Amino acid sequence: MTSAxxxxxxxxxxxxxxxxxxxDRRVVNPATGDELARxxxxxxxxxxxxxxxxxxxxxxxxxxxxxxxxxxxxxxAGIIRSRVDEFARTLTLEQGKVLAEARIEMMAAADxxxxxxxxxxxxxxxxxxxxxxxIRFSTLLVPVGPVAAFSPWNFPAVIPARKVAAxxxxxxxxxxxxxxxxxxxxxxxxxxxxxxxxxxxxxxxxTGEPAEISTHLIASPIIRKVSFTGSTAVGREIGRLAAGxxxxxxxxxxxxxPVLVLEDADIEKxxxxxxxxxxxxxGQVCIAPTRFYVHERVYDDFVNGLTTRAAALKVADxxxxxTQMGPLANSRxxxxxxxxxxxxxxxxxxxxxxxxxxxxxGYFWQPTVLADVPETARIMNEEPFGPVAVVRRVSSVDEAxxxxxxxxxxxxxxxxxxxxxxxxxxxxxxxAGMLGINNMMINLxxxxxxxxxESGYGSEGGSEGLHAYLDVKLISES
Length: 478
Description:
alpha/beta; Aldehyde Dehydrogenase, Chain A, domain 2; 2 domains; 7-stranded mixed sheet; 6-stranded mixed sheet; 14 helices; 22 strands
């Protein structure tokens, strides 16, 4: 274990406490495989205490003015910024990403909290013109109730920040379960909220066995809203559990983002942006560009450019000076890379760089580019969630659009073209919740984040993210 890593525990009623469940799990540094700490396991009794705490706190928190809630959220964001270096080191230790990326993520989390602090003050109702002069119709936006939130390991600050900040700004209380691999980042954020003056029970953090926690929390009549980010397979189960209580759900699930590089694209720009966004966080990003459909006339230039940039990246411990890409988050991702890349090469793909771990310790994988990948290869149909770009030749815009829409996923998509008419067409025909044209900047505090088809439903971020935690109440008075 390392003294640089924070103490773990459950966080209930603004207090760090041990879990009373049986056993524990190792939390490891993915760059070394060394143990950082033992994850506390919440018992059913712990979960019931969190639920009772959240229900009790909601009765008071919903009555706190939007201005006062905003002040607390903004103070919490300021505390996070003041300790960004400490937070970033913890994030890199448990998740693996480069320290500079971890710092950017923590600052982005603070920005998200700040943005919802202000948006919560603008949860306006409306007055509806009446058919009769002695009756007035109006609507109020009211908090839906206690929330159960579930967050993954790839962005342990930004994704929880969206869920927590939106729920708290709306007047809801929140119980959040961070990923087992990355619990300390969320615990630090919760402690910042407590220090900022958040009342006991408004935000609780529980850790342990995912299936046990999700089943227990979602089944409780106390929970009125569920927010989940993770795989499509688990999202289906979360949706099924929530349906039993007719509970509102936001699901942000898997993706397999296509990139359409059309004949008239600026190839240098397309290569530069694609490399930067493909290999950040070792490709472990749900909106990472992955399936590249490149027009045959610019195909070789694009493949050569992307290969050169990928091969030049320095892969090492995220805490080491000069590192440009860190390790994968766990051994499961390494095995997935081995399986998918081997299958693609067997199917006829051409490996232009990478394709191996390149390390004796930790969960590393070299930035990889696969060219001429057949659509039948598993990596063209399963989200790799790693530092692998798969490139395929197309001969027309029609072919590129059909290929992009071929899969049941629809989270993010990207395209490069100089044609205004093609841009308009892509906006209308690409089946995705988010589309970046000539850029990949689609994820900001003020923009909605969500997918279509099997990539989920509902949005986090933006005003849509706040409204997901609010009910509309009609009042008719005379």
